[in-house]
Amino acid sequence: MADVSDPAIDAAYQDVRSDKTDTNWVLLDYESDRSDKLQVTGTGSGGLDELREALDDGKASFAYARVSYANDVESTREKFILVVWIGPQCKVMRKAKISVHVADVKQILRVHSIEVAAREKDDLNEKPIVLRLRKAGGASYDGI
């Protein structure tokens, strides 16, 4: 089991969800290579581009992000995504554990439209994620 008991995790999650702050992502990493305790290692307001830069190729991490996109000139939508990051140089044992730990993380990062499995930073490019969000959103009159 992953240890998600740190109150800072829920506080950061609530901060991303709040309309009163500019924070639009939070990154959770393990305390150490041998630990199963997660902690907040970054937050930001620069969207997926900034989140991508915060990811470490040698780590497995979880991230929660708010993604805003326009349906037309008159409306925008905000959806939330859960990112499961396994960097290309992540150790084998950590890779094995993360698939089990995602269930524990979902207990605290509860509300999200889609889950994004990212193995390289390009997996967090905004355009394909927005396309997936539109498809997951139900009725689409854009022909998507």
From TrEMBL:
Example of a GO biological process term: regulation of actin filament polymerization
Subcellular location: Cytoplasm, Cytoskeleton
Keywords annotated in UniProt: Actin-binding, Cytoplasm, Cytoskeleton
PROSITE patterns reported in the protein's UniProt record: ADF_H
UniProt-listed SMART domains: ADF
Signal peptide: none
ADF-H domain sequence ranges: 1-134
Pfam families assigned to the protein according to its UniProt record, in alphabetical order: Cofilin_ADF
Keyword Acyltransferase carried by entry: no
Molecular function via GO: actin filament binding
GO terms under cellular component: actin filament; cortical actin cytoskeleton; site of polarized growth
InterPro entries reported in the protein's UniProt record: ADF-H, ADF-H/Gelsolin-like_dom_sf
Record-stated family: Belongs to the actin-binding proteins ADF family. Coactosin subfamily.
The protein's name: ADF-like domain-containing protein
